[in-house]
Structures are given as C-alpha cells and as structure tokens.
Design brief:
This is V-type ATP synthase subunit F. The chain is built from five helices and four strands, in the order E-H-E-H-E-H-H-E-H. By secondary structure, it is an alpha/beta fold. It has one domain (3-77): ATPase, V1 complex, subunit F (Rossmann fold, 3-Layer(aba) Sandwich).
Length: 107
C-alpha cells in the first residue's frame, strides 16, 4: 500500500504522524539527503517537504516534480509568503488552470 512521507525539521514533521504519515525528521541538508534516498527506495505516493529542507535539496528535488511518483509538495512557510513553496504552488495552479488565479495583483 502506498504511503505518505513527510521530510523536514523534527518540530515541523512529527505532528503529521497522527495522520498516518511516515515522518523523516532532518535538521540539516546531510540528514535530509539520506532521508530522501530512503524515501525514494520506498513505496511512497506523496512526499511533503518543509520549505527550509526543500531549499537545501533544491537540486535533488527538482527532477522529482515531473515524475508521477512520488508527488512532491512543498509545505509553504507562513513566514515566507514569497518562498519556493508558494512559487511552486502558483506554477502548478497556473499550469492546471492556464492562468495565475491565486496571486493576481500581488506580484
């Protein structure tokens, strides 16, 4: 059965355990790379990554955005409204809908 993986700082990911997700806490880029390797070896349909870790693993995550599995989603940091999490969300919505409907007028 496919699972959900959550990769990020310990305090940010452990809350997802209650939902049945498999948590991969990583406090730096080296730990995150090792955890990402384990995730990619497993049967994960969805990968949620905190924005801070996504920035550290930008090069490793980039090719995964176009693959069907796992679906990679960045958890936007509320303190960074213009971070990569929101940018990725904007691009995906624009590609799906054909227009920027989320942030019109805020750019």
């Amino acid at each position: 059965m496919s699972k959900v993986a959550v990769l990020g700082q310990r305090d940010a990911v452990l809350g997802f355990k209650a939902s049945g997700a498999v948590c991969f806490p990583a406090d730096d880029a080296e730990e995150a790379r090792a955890a990402l390797a384990k995730i990619l070896e497993g049967d994960y349909a969805i990968l949620l990554v905190t924005e801070e870790i996504a920035e550290a693993l930008r090069k490793e995550l980039s090719p995964l955005y176009e693959k069907p599995r796992p679906i990679v989603t960045i958890l936007p940091d509320a303190r960074k409204p213009k971070g990569i999490g929101m940018e990725l969300l904007r691009k995906r919505v624009e590609r799906a809908v054909g227009a920027n409907i989320l942030f019109k007028g805020e750019e």
